[in-house]
Target: Alpha-glucuronidase
Amino acid sequence: MNLWLRQLKKDIPADLHTPVELARFELGSALPGLKTELRVQASMGDAYRIDPLDDGSFLLTGGSTGLLYAAYRLITDRLCGQEITRPVSSSPKYALRMINCWDNADGEIERGYAGRSLFFRNGRLDYDADRIRTLGRLLASAGLNVLCINNVNVHYPAQLLLEDYLPDLAALADLFRPFGVKLMVSVDFSQPMRHGVATADPLDPAVRAWWQDTAKRVYAAVPDLAGFLVKADSEGRPGPFTYGRNHADGANMLAEALRPFGGVVVWRCFVYNCRQDWRDTKTDRPKAAWEHYAFLDGAFSDNVILQVKHGPFDFQVREPLSPLLLGMKKTKLAMELQLAQEYTGHQIDLYTMIPMWKELYEELPADNIMSIAAVSNLGDDENYTGHPLAAVNLYTFGLLAWDPDVDMTAAVTRWCRLTYELDPLQEQTLVELLLSSRRTYEKYTAPLGIGWMVTPHDHYGPNPSGYEYDLWGTYHKADRNAVGIDRTHEGTGYLDQYPQYFRDKYGDPASCPDLFLLFYHRLPYTFRMRDGRTLIQRIYDDHFEGLEETRAMADKLSSIVFPEPDASVIRERMDKQLYNAREWCDIINTFFHRLSGIPDEHGRTIYD
Ligand code: GCV
Model:
């Protein structure tokens, strides 16, 4: 098993209690001969400064977590062959850099592709403390500082907040504390009703009192808990709508309970009608978040953060930035990404996310974005992420949440170098391959921004009509002439939720970027793309190219000498990806060919 920072001592002592103690240990173990002085300047928080001194030593200045980040910076630069020769100052762009685990108390992980939970077994917190410390190191070295340990779908019994279980939560928080990682827990909005309160109405005094009392007990056990994460009125979860209240009523009630302890409420905006009738043409699911939240801009307490999925649907390969992230200027926001490869290959197919994130960050203007969160891709597999190369997503997620301007080739190279000892040519091959993997995956799956042609529920592999007559509001409406949904002003009006520059960019099919074409527009297969090809030809070409690129990727990957056991896992998953890519290519091309009756101009094999 190879993790980044493989060079560091495997055993992290249990008797290190603060980030500064840990920083000293890590520096001593990774760079034994190097003299460093650590100077705490509490007001600097996570920020740090590294000064190289004339005698070859280094002065590190920062808040206590800042010093830990400085230590990892010095260590990782050195391990990557980079010397710090000038003073370096660094501070994170986003205050909360969060991983959201969807781990259930029974040890299962919703959308988990790397084994079972690292934290839970048989209904309780139960873990291998050494593995947790290694995880703490991985998170801290990537600059990540909040870990929500349980699923937003809080399945009963939701025990974490109960008296009997708080000591376990406190013990886990103690383990993560030296790494500067604060815990967060997902809570069930209806939880008071499991404890003798007749309602969960956020305006009911008994409900408010229950949460206030609960917060008091939880914070007595874990004084630095980051806060609560909430999925309410979404996919069957309880929430304020049951009582005719809005989401500001719900979030502010919890915020009031957490305020005395400095906790935040992270309130998810993934709210839509998940029981849509496919015959209903008025409802367009991507419009839902805006409709539920935009009118509440400015109504949330200052310790509420609205967490918005990066796109208006649900972590598809390509979606536009959610209009909420552009429009809610008076509300604290978090952008939610997904490291778990739910729709992007289940940590079987290679899918390096940084190119996609870069595009999102470029569009993300608002300074009310406080925080970046990502659904975890972790599990108890020996390598933590199922596919050894999927760890690049965890690492680079952290680098970008700290500094979105980080160069993506540099970030991926850094991960490769910290993880493997490859010769320069192999390293370059791996970096190129990782960086191109998202586009390749995009080519062989659903075309040009449509999404959702996956196998229902499981979300791996193709099924172009799998969701077409279902309840989830995810339709492409392909018929013999055309495909896609018109989301312009003349269509569903989704595009009207955006600022004018955005509407101008995407509103006209003649100028809309190709890769979003079928997200915004319904077009005939004979539509002429800017490069002269017809839409149908572009679909065929992309799919054949995606398959060819996957084959080339497999060849290149086999030329890289990975250590075992990574080599075997990588090989075995690549074989599965080859199979998957072929299924996608053939099924999507056949689907469109059968519908349209238009042949491929190059006469390649399509199965009718
Ligand atoms: C945790 C999608 C996933 C669900 C997930 C949900 C969410 O619908 O398929 O597994 O539930 O998103 O983000 O809440």
